[in-house]
Every structure is written in structure tokens, then in C-alpha cells.
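User: Can you predict the 3D structure for this chain?
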Amino acid sequence: MTDIMRHPTGTLSEPYTIGLLRSMLEIPSPSYGEERISSHLVEVMRELGFQAHRDQAGNAVGEISRGPGPTVLLLGHMDTIPGEIPVRVEHSRLYGRGAVDAKSPLAAMICAAADAVDFRGKLVVVGAVEEETPLSRGAMHIRNTHPRPDALIIGEPSGWQSVVLGYKGKLDLRYQVECEPTHPSNPVPKASELAAEAWSVLLDLLGPDASHAGFGTPGATLVEIRGDLVHAEAEFSIRTPPGFDSEGLVARLSSRLPQGRLSVINSVAACRVGRNDPVVRALTTAIRSQQAHPAMKLKTGTSDMNTLAEHWDVPMATYGPGDSRLDHADDEHILISDYLRGIAVLTRALTELSAHFDAQPRLSLVPSARVEEDS
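Assistant: Here is the predicted structure, written as C-alpha cells:
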């Protein structure tokens, strides 16, 4: 990495911030394999003045205290899907696995926390493990062991000019069935047939309007189906809108499956904040300071915002540089200029939160005015 360099204003230099992101991309960190990058980020944050450590879950946690004031927690994830992309710069684009999802948002958070010298209060930056897995163990550990902050920013690729107000929830199910061995021509149901039928029953229960296209409707995915005449197993993932009755769906589906076992792998509710949320206002003010018009998005996927919102009723939003259409892509990359703008936006947003923070909980879970829906 480039040695720490700062501008006369005290902010980190562009070569340093770009070097930090590149160093993160050069460390492979698929889910369950985040130890190297976690140790690296602890070292980086200590060099930048954080008190930093790896917690019991393997998360990289850094804190900076700058006097009395609110505690703002910034959480992004270190893990990526499997597969490597050669790390390189081409045409002002930085390529590498995780360049979008989600090492750029996390690197921007680290740099912004170091740069936000006008912030008064405590900043906590977390590089979380296992966000790309069903259980989000890193965020769960933070939720269960860390004091509730006064405000929360989740690091995911929103695009540097956009703020994410909410995500659909998720219900992951597994159906397992066994049948007595029999000849293929026997008219009795076979295990493989029952697994396939379970998928059809799920779609029927969700109704004809079910779709991944909108924020207000559930959408189902057949993640996996395997087996034979005797043993079969299927996994389903349902993205759920606010207010969706996941327990009711599981009960109705179980009652319509003649045999076998239906189990819940993971369930997390949808979350949504309003335009007047203090974190949203701070981020949109910061985006405008970069001479851009902020956009609001609702995501039909799921993130660690869902996990933390289930227990923390605090101002929150998701933000990070990067084009989410490149999530998991074979040519995953980020425009270096977008990454640098993301750092500037987060730095200004932290200053805004310090100056204007409203101590009263103001998380709004009611629908807000027109916002853009995105996958």
C-alpha cells in the first residue's frame, strides 16, 4: 500500500485511498475465508488512528472517538462470492472481485471516518464477515454484542449519487422428502416429483402477482433441486415486502405438502426508512454538495440493513459507490472517480450528522414519496 499521505486540509490523498481499495481487492476473501482481509483492515485502521481489533466472529472493528456526541456505526462487508478477477486499472476503472460488492463502499467508509475530523462523537467502522451467506453471521454478531448506535450507515453499492431507503426481506426454505424404492412406472409419487410439486405449490400460494420486479410484492426463486426417486431436496428463496406474513406462508405451504419436511433456513423482515430520516438527509445533503441531484432507491434484494433494522430502531440508510448491476459480474469494476466521490459524500455526511443529529429515534417504516425501485 501507498504510505499514508494527506492533503493540507488533513484529508487522505487520492493515491492512498486508491491504494487502500486496491490492497483489499488483491486479498481474496470469499465467504468463510475473510481472515486475511480482516487482519489487513485492522492494521490499516490502526495506522489511521482507529482503535481496532478482530472480534469473535472475525469482523474487523475500528473506533475513533472525537469528543462527546452521537455514536455512528458504519458497516460494510468484506466477503465476496467465489472467483477471482485480475486486479488492474484500465480506462480509469479499477477491476477486481469485490470492487463493487462491497469492498469499495467499505474502503470509502474507512477513509471517510479517518477524514471526518469535524465529526464530534464516536465513529465505529465494521468490516463484516459472511454477508453473502444466508445467516449474515458478522452483522448478527454486531447486533447481539455491540451497544445500539445513534445512527447507522450500511455500505453497499447504491451508486455515489443515490441513497437506498429499504430492502425486501428474505425467507429461505428447504424441503426434504423420502419415498420407498419403487419402479419408475409405478403411479405412486416419487421423491423427485414431490420436490418439483412443492415449487409449484409455493408459486400458487404466492399468487399470480408475485414478482422480483417490484418492492411491494413477494418474489420466489428455485435456488436448487436435486435427488432421485427415493431422496430429494429443494431450496426456495422468497424475497418479501414490508408486512409480509412469513410464518403464515410456511404454515400454508407445510399443510399442502403431503409428506416430507419443510424447514426454515433463514428469515429476515423487510426494512424501509423515510426521506426525512436524519441519515438520509445527511447523505442527500452531502450528495448535493458534490453538485449532483440525489436519487432514492428501494432494493428488491436483501442486505445487512435488514438484519440490524430488526433490532435497532435508529436512523439508518444504505450508501456506497459502485454500480450494483456489476455485483458478482465477471467484469466487476468501479470508476475510480465514483469511488473518490463516495468518500467525499460519506465524509460530508458524517459532518452533517455531527452538526444536526436529532437525538430522538426517528426511524420511519411508513412508505415515503416516490422512490426508485432497483434490484
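The radius of gyration is 22 Å. The first strand starts at residue 51 and ends at 54.
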